[in-house]
Amino acid sequence: MRVETRRRWAITGLTGPAYLWLTVTIFLPLSAMLYFSFQKKGPFGKHTSEFTLKHYEAFFTKDYLQALTWRSLEMGFHTTALCLIIGFPAAYILAKRIKGRWREALFLLVVLPFWSNALVRIFSWTIVLRPDGFLDRAVHLVLPGIPPIDLTDSYAAIIIGLTHSYLPYMILTCYLSLQAIDDSLIEAARSMGARAHTILWRIILPLSIPGLAAGTVLIFVPVIGSFFEPKLLGGTQGAMIGTVIEEQFTVVSNWPLGGALSFILLAIILLILGVSSPFLKQHMRTS
Amino acid sequence: MRKIGLLTTAALALVLTAGQASADGEVRVLNWQGYGTDEAWAIEAFEAATGYEVVHDYFNSEQEMLTKLRTSPGAYDVVLINSAFTGQAAEEGLIQLIDPQVISNFGDLSPGLRDAVEFTYEGDLYGVAWTWGLTSIAYDMTEVEPGNTIEILWDPQYAGRVGLRDDSVENVSFAALATGQDMNNPHDLDAIREKLRALKPQIRTYWASEDEWNKEFTADSFDVSTYWSGSASRSAKAFDMPVGFMIPKEGAIAWLDGLSVATDAPNLDGAQKFIDYMVSPEHYVRWDTEVGAPASANNEAINQLPEDFFNRAVMGDPEATANLQFMAPLTDEQRETFLEIWTETKAYFAE
Question: Could you tell me if A226 and A56 are in contact, meaning their C-beta atoms sit under 8 angstroms apart?
Fold first, then answer.
């Protein structure tokens, strides 16, 4: 009994600070935002509490808000898909093919972009993508005589910039999963005559689902709410639900509408995660 | 470090008490920092001419200026007020009537600016027009024959060659001017929506800052773009870019700054003399040639500038000031509506 009590105290003492931290930094601000999203006016000037649902109604009555949300979801799908396509093979090579100091060096290269400011990374893309920029010149060295390449102010530029920013998450989470796969499993499969693609589909992919899922969530969720990447790289293609939310706060101080749109976005994300998680769980069990 | 801090505090305290002791011989000015009135040579010239000492205090926003006037009555003599706020300041009793007779340069001020209703409250004058500027249309002089209409933004000739600032109030205002409406209180919002949507084939990119505008222009991203008059002057003069600036016959978005006398100004005579000096050609010509200034409301001052100066060649055109619409403070509801119209338009552009 005494042991039991002491253990309980230890658990409380060890996890308490984390929960307190979460309460102060996430739960309280979010609650305040949730409160204001149901208010007529934001916390400025003479504030009188007046309940309203109109900011939530706005989303359902205004087509352009739905259209922009759909655009943001597409941006999330495209970025996440690119990160998967590039990140998983990269993580596989890092985990299974390269050993020793080379692996450390390559790891450093993967993490390196994280050391620079996100805004700086995005700005440097504008230099690479503009006509007569780095990309344009490089391509013209190989293929002279083709028309100038100008990717600035386009949807492609947004996806390129976002993929570059978020790719390390995918590589790191997939690496952890792949690292944990026992090599003898693969050898056993091989010795029993399994071909490379069978090994990939039946062993490696199912066993790396936790890493793939974590990477997908870590990328998809922030990307659909992103605003400065589309704004800086997208030009007229940069209108997204994230930029709308940002402008509600910075341009017109309309916290209620900005808050309501944020919570709708959060609801959509939770819905997507909720629908996909049983599917993922099932896959992990069968593997 | 700490010693220096203490010394500065002591020095400041000394200055402040000394200042209060000799308030009669001072003119206390409230303005943005570095905005014409606090040039060292100007203060020197004014002090030499009148014997009054000039003391400055600064604000960082119009709201801060109003707050300072409200909370410290009798602390200021002259205050710079954007014409959008002159009426409000007069209504609150923060500034006093000005007798045009005491301002010897009053007759030289451009009538379109001097007599702007924004400077009056219940028919009386509360502000003297000082400087003004525009958001209008800049163009590439090597490629564009600009004409004099705002419709150049919608001209198919410049399809895909137009730049706009990503700013809801500005773009709604341009659409209001193009559809013949009062930009501060447009009545036909659907017409504005339609007009903005019609820009879809035209627009190449958005710009956000003067620096970005210059970069886009140099990279030949656009031939025609909305721009600020002061910045256009700098681009043309300081960076030698072939930037022309056009003021359409439909009007342009204008701001106008005036100088007012605070209520209970301790030094009324000094305040009047200071305003008179500030709107004089002597002050303005030196300000624009040596430092660079916005356009002056004083015609005489503009005429004394070298002929190729932006503020004379472009802003000095008498027709330019005929159709200006001055920015008024907008209500929260208006700003939200304008942003909604612009966001909807941007969503349409991105389709």
Answer: no
* Contacting A residues, span 107-136, partner chain B, CB-CB under 8 Å: 130-131
Closest by Cα among B280, B253, B306 to B132:
B253
CA distance to A13, A30, A65, B186, B297, per residue, from A20 (Å): 11, 15, 36, 51, 61
Distance, in Å, from the CA atom of A234 to the CA atom of A260, rounded to the nearest integer, reads 25
Write out the DSSP string of A59-105. Answer: HHH-HHHHHHHHHHHHHHHHHHHHHHHHHHHHHHIIIII--THHHHH
Closest approach of chain B CAs to the CA of A275, in angstroms? Answer: 28
Rounded CA-CA distance A16/B85 in Å is 53
Indicate the CATH number for domain A62-286: 1.10.3720.10
Residues of chain A with pLDDT under 50: none
pLDDT, one tens digit for every residue, chain B (351 residues)? 344 444 444 444 444 444 443 445 899 999 999 899 999 999 999 999 999 999 999 998 888 999 999 999 999 999 999 999 999 999 999 999 999 999 999 999 998 899 988 999 999 999 999 999 999 999 999 999 998 899 999 999 999 999 999 999 999 999 999 999 999 999 999 999 999 999 999 999 999 888 889 988 998 889 999 999 988 988 888 888 999 999 999 999 999 999 999 999 999 999 999 999 999 999 999 999 888 889 999 999 999 999 888 899 888 887 777 778 888 888 889 999 999 999 999 999 998
Our CA angle for B328, B332, B333, nearest 5°, is 105
The single-letter DSSP state of residue A149 is P
CB contacts, 8 Å: A231 with chain B = 166
A252 and B346 in contact by Cβ < 8 A?
no
State the helix-helix crossing angle for A155-180 and A209-224, rounded to 10 degrees: 150
A36, with CB counted inside 10 A (0-12, 13-18, 19+), is buried
Give the angle subtended at the CA of A129 by the CAs of A126 and A135, to the nearest 5°.
Answer: 135
Which residue in this structure is represented by tokens 């600070």? A17
Q: Residue B248 and residue B246: Cα distance in Å, rounded?
A: 6
Asked if the domains at B25-126+254-313 and B133-252+327-350 fall in one CATH topology, the answer is: yes
Question: Looking up tokens 């200071």, which residue turns up?
Answer: B274
Q: Which residue has the tokens 């025609």?
A: B224
CATH superfamily entry for domain B25-126+254-313: Periplasmic binding protein-like II (3.40.190.10)
Classify residue A150 by burial, with Cβ atoms within 10 Å: 0-12, 13-18, 19+: middle
Give the best residue of A64, A74, A254 to mutate against chain B (max B CB count within 10 A): A64
In one-letter notation, the amino acid at residue B20 is Q
User: Tokens for A283?
Assistant: 């896959």
Topology adopted by domain B133-252+327-350 = D-Maltodextrin-Binding Protein; domain 2 (3.40.190)
Distance CA A260, CA A255 (A): 8
Q: Counting beta carbons within 10 angstroms of the beta carbon of residue A9, is it exposed (0 to 12), middle (13 to 18) or buried (19 or more)?
A: exposed
Is A67–B347 a contact, with Cβ atoms under 8 angstroms apart? yes
Nearest CA in chain A to B168: A251
Structure tokens at A161: 């910039």
pLDDT for res A114: 81
